């Protein structure tokens, strides 16, 4: 009846192309052809996962109900993926530096104390952060290390005991000294 | 004609028949057997709530103590059935409240259950014992509070994967202090925290509690307290399985688990901290069922746990297990019957784990009792499917989801027709099959030819033409449920096999090529089927007859057209056909 799928020389990428139309339908039927109505729920889920910074390549949730994973499972996985960066043993956190083109990831469990961590960061990003002081923070340095804690607040690295820092740090950001001034001063 | 046996004797004999099939056969023997049987049938199974009405059921079976009803079609699980479609429980409860005052059991799947229904249940049935709500929705924790407060003899409350509006955890505290009959509680789908002391007291005073599945909100540090109060537990579901690593928490957990000598099934395991998994090792040798499908734990930790469970029969796990983990599974768990591997990152463009077809092939080779498979993966080959089929001709359920629609055999780039063909050819007892990947009409020819015991078939993005659908409808003798999405199947096969549809429970077709005209014709031809067009674009007759409908749901019924349809569902019946043509 209808044409079979051609498999001669080329890989026939069209056959594996993910699109909203029916397999085998051509454009002329578009007016009447049933379309995949975008279901509000699924596109919301898709949008929320697109808000992550490292979104490229984009998630493929283009087709409603495919792959056939139930909503409660999808929701649990999304929640867990957001947490997993800080909870999995071997605590990898993202490190960004103002002005750098891409982020890095380090395992903060590898370090025993703040000086070790700072030296590692300084080497990785070729910057200088100086010495921490409770009163002045990293005042005077070109850069200052900050981190996002479990509550979502941005904190200066060094204020809390090391162990507490390790369990509460979700990600690091090396801020330009001029910006960090606000964090260190009274 | 005189009977050798009085009614009472026949009734006594019929009491030994538990399967509906047998009871249905018995009731067809003669009128008096029909009469005797209908008075003594206690358990009713309604596979499609719209196939029959509460009134018809009650009229035929006046003394029922257990009811099981299924509502929405299976594809509702994947958001293909629009909100407000139907499957309301209330009419059933209100009818049964009047006619079955001694009803003890209600088990539901994919139905819309309101707090009002739950309250009515709790007040109408004095000896109510079992409530199982599987994939249901429409109720809140207030409805649960009614059940807890009023069902004095409740044994089982199982909320399996239902969508509950979680107003508070207070519902659990409604179980009265003198309530002691609980045998099974599954609240794993709930979000909010229940009063822990109320839970502790409940567990303490219910000596027959065998199943306790907690929700995520119960922290790991509190588990020992519950386990110590219920050492007779057979099935246990944890909450979030994580905490900072502390030796006291760990040792409490070890001790508490050790006290449970009857544990066979474990589940829960949200947010797992792998360091706490070994706390369970003492019970693992007796474990037959393990649900780790929320545990985002890496393969080595999974393997360590699984290697402690030689008696494992059922494993649900995420694809973090990877091929290496499945290899270990196949060597440690020779009793394995069911395996489900879920995707950890279903929408990711690239594979995030090293799980391929090889894992499944290995398990099929190493686990001689494997009969039920659900497997999500990103690549498959005909060779692998053929190997699986040859290794495991005893497969009963085979559901494969290759994540990319229409993905071909990754080695040869051919369709996966021969692979699935081998599955249906070798696995002669196959009852359930879900297809995926690149498939032509040929695979349906194989299915129609060989899959004689197949009862449920799920098809997506497959086939070339009506011939595919025709092969299935004309060849699969045992087919009861057929669900199809995004396939180029149209009018011809459907109309040519109209009579087949009366032998099945239901047919679902969405985003296919079935025209409105054909649906009308089908509805006209087959008065004992409900032919329902679901179309959110507006009335089908506002478009040409040749225009394909969005979704089609066809099912046999003795209840006539639905009276509770939403505005996007149209029944194609004789009247409609005359009215609209």
TrEMBL record, chain A:
Superkingdom of this protein's organism: Eukaryota
Domain PB1 span(s) in chain numbering: 90-177
Gene3D superfamilies the record matches: Phosphatidylinositol 3-kinase Catalytic Subunit, Chain A, domain 1
Segments of this protein annotated with the region Disordered: 20-44
Protein localization: Nucleus
One record GO biological process: auxin-activated signaling pathway
GO cellular component, one term: nucleus
Family to which this protein belongs: Belongs to the Aux/IAA family.
Subunit record text: Homodimers and heterodimers.
Function: Aux/IAA proteins are short-lived transcriptional factors that function as repressors of early auxin response genes at low auxin concentrations.
Name of the featured protein: Auxin-responsive protein
Organism: Abeliophyllum distichum
UniProtKB/TrEMBL annotation, chain B:
Cell compartments where the protein resides: Nucleus
Entry's Gene Ontology BP terms: auxin-activated signaling pathway; pollen maturation
GO cellular component: nucleus
Keyword DNA-binding tagged: no
F-box domain location: 5-46
UniProt main location, coarse: nucleus
Domain of life where this protein originates: Eukaryota
Tagged with keyword Cell wall biogenesis/degradation: no
The protein's annotated pathway: Protein modification; protein ubiquitination
Gene Ontology MF terms: auxin binding
Pfam family, one: F-box_5
UniProt keyword annotations, A-Z: Auxin signaling pathway, Developmental protein, Nucleus, Ubl conjugation pathway
Name the UniProt record assigns to this protein: Protein TRANSPORT INHIBITOR RESPONSE 1
